[in-house]
UniProtKB/TrEMBL annotation:
Residues 8-221 form the Cytidylate kinase domain. Its EC number is 2.7.4.25. GO terms for biological process: pyrimidine nucleotide metabolic process. It catalyses: dCMP + ATP = dCDP + ADP; CMP + ATP = CDP + ADP. Belongs to the cytidylate kinase family. Type 1 subfamily. This is Cytidylate kinase. GO terms for molecular function: ATP binding; CMP kinase activity; dCMP kinase activity. It is an enzyme of class 2 (transferase). It comes from Candidatus Erwinia haradaeae. The gene is cmk. The lineage of its organism: Bacteria, Pseudomonadati, Pseudomonadota, Gammaproteobacteria, Enterobacterales.
Amino acid sequence: MMICAPVITIDGPSGSGKGTLCQAMSQELKWNILDSGAIYRILALLVLHHQVDINSEKAIMPLAGNLDVQFLFQNGDLKVMLKRVDISIKIRSQIVSDLASRLAVLPRVREILLNFQRSFRKLPGLIADGRDMGTVVFPDTSLKIFLDANLEARTYRRMLQLQKNGVSVNFNELLFQMEKRDERDCNRSVAPLILRDDVLIINSTHIPKQKVTEIALDYVRTKLT
Ligand code: DC
């Protein structure tokens, strides 16, 4: 009999702290990680690199069907590897962020990425973060978290993350871009970011990250026992 690995899904808007929570839980539980946003970002990087027409879904599809991606911990940081090359910082640029959100509305591209994302489901378990992890990619799991925070807090966190990577940004410009991306992620016709009633909602606006991790781990442990 095949044993299906358990999955914790963490959905929510950009900058809500999904990545941080996902990494903290993965280190605690020793489960695998899927950063699905990184997959859309990698696709954007490849589209830019190969100068593919971003208006042609047909031209983008072969790139989506041929990805070699790994998520690895190195000195406590999660590294995103494409064909064994560390592209963790490259995929966080503004141009990549914006293009990733445009590519994420393409239905056939999303369809191709479904099986690829599901291939990360391996024992002892997977923690998957994104927008549609609990609704579309792993709807069968009962361990679903929705992490939220207000736009200002999310923009501030994203600004600090970019600064850490050596990129200086204007807060108001970034806030405007995040708002535009939120709108695209929530209003697209395929797999939009939506809140269902089968999830644990955590609003991290005024809660320190250690507390968020504690709440999430308590929820998972209670469900698993
Ligand atoms: O979480 P992030 O900012 O790294 O995601 C990058 C883009 O990819 C974002 O605009 C939303 C999109 N995305 C998506 O549509 N579905 C997912 N499961 C994850 C990300």
